[in-house]
Design goal:
alpha/beta; 8 strands; globular
């Protein structure tokens, strides 16, 4: 509650990421009147521990949707993949003229064996999924540009130490419930120096603006043209960004973030859909979908409503 949240979502134990993704995908197809057979490309963006190693979640989603012999794509850039994936899809459309309809799904399902959803970082992590139908040449909610970059020295932040090839099993007595919080790695990186931590906090905001400016340059617009800001579901982070941009909180995802918690890769598209449904985002508005992810990755995609 101190972080600004009043709700988070926790799926039942027997509901998998594939289950959540399939429900979102089926809802998107029903809302748009598109049949699964009309989808040329199925994309799954994930941001959590996979259900199984050596396994393609996008293929499993295709099976759940009863798609056969379909092109699928699995994206796993943490919570960035639900936004940076839009740029990747645009690239595929550019080189594959036969692709006209894309089903884009983003899902987050916390593996509570591996991570404590309350201590990954300074956000409460939620389970959720969102899906959108993307169409070549569609006249509304048009992707304009994507910009992203990583600061590779920070790639170990927020990683899960156990369950991978280096350390397959945790030590005896280990539990995610009592394991050190993710922000401990950040503090130790800066040797718990308050000055260096404050400087990095300011630098993190500056890099979000760098990603935004890069996307604006690609799209041929300016930062001042942006009318709405959608950030990862972090109320404090949204406040830190909106004020210097001169964007009122009511034209951000601030309230949505408080109501849903951090749903990883599903944050920004969920918020965009909600704001469009509410009428907050109107035709012609320029929306920035932006955030920070593991990597550490800063990113932004621009959408013209």
């Amino acid at each position: 509650m101190r972080w600004g949240y009043h709700t988070f979502h926790r799926a039942p134990d027997d509901v998998t990421a594939t289950d959540l993704a399939a429900r979102a995908a089926q809802d998107a197809l029903a809302r748009t009147g598109v049949a699964a057979d009309d989808v040329d490309l199925l994309v799954l963006a994930t941001s959590e521990h996979p259900e199984y190693p050596h396994w393609d979640g996008s293929a499993a989603l295709g099976r759940a949707l009863k798609m056969e012999n379909r092109q699928t794509l699995l994206l796993n850039e943490g919570c960035a993949s639900g936004v940076t994936g839009l740029g990747i899809v645009a690239g595929l459309l550019a080189v594959q003229p036969e692709i006209n309809t894309v089903l884009f799904v983003a899902v987050n399902r916390v593996s509570e064996f591996h991570r404590n959803r309350m201590t990954v970082n300074n956000a409460v992590h939620s389970d959720g999924a969102v899906a959108a139908v993307l169409r070549r040449g569609h006249e509304r909610n048009t992707w304009l540009a994507t910009e992203q970059f990583t600061v590779t020295d920070l790639c170990d932040w927020f990683r899960t130490d156990y369950g991978g090839a280096v350390t397959p099993l945790p030590p005896e007595g280990w539990s995610s419930k009592t394991a050190p919080a993710g922000h401990i790695q950040v503090q130790e990186h800066f040797q718990r120096d308050p000055k260096r931590l404050r400087e990095f906090g300011q630098q993190a905001v500056t890099r979000v603006f760098d990603a935004l400016d890069g996307a604006c340059k690609r799209a041929g617009v300016s930062r001042d043209d942006v009318t709405h800001l959608i950030y990862i579901n972090d109320p404090d982070g949204i406040t830190d960004l909106a004020q210097p941009l001169g964007i009122p909180l009511e034209r951000t995802s601030y309230d949505i973030a408080k109501a849903h918690g951090h749903m990883g890769s599903a944050d920004q598209l969920t918020a965009l859909g909600r704001l469009i449904e509410q009428g907050t985002v109107a035709p012609g508005d320029l929306v920035a979908l932006t955030g920070i992810s593991i990597g550490m990755r800063w990113y932004c995609s621009l959408v013209r409503a």
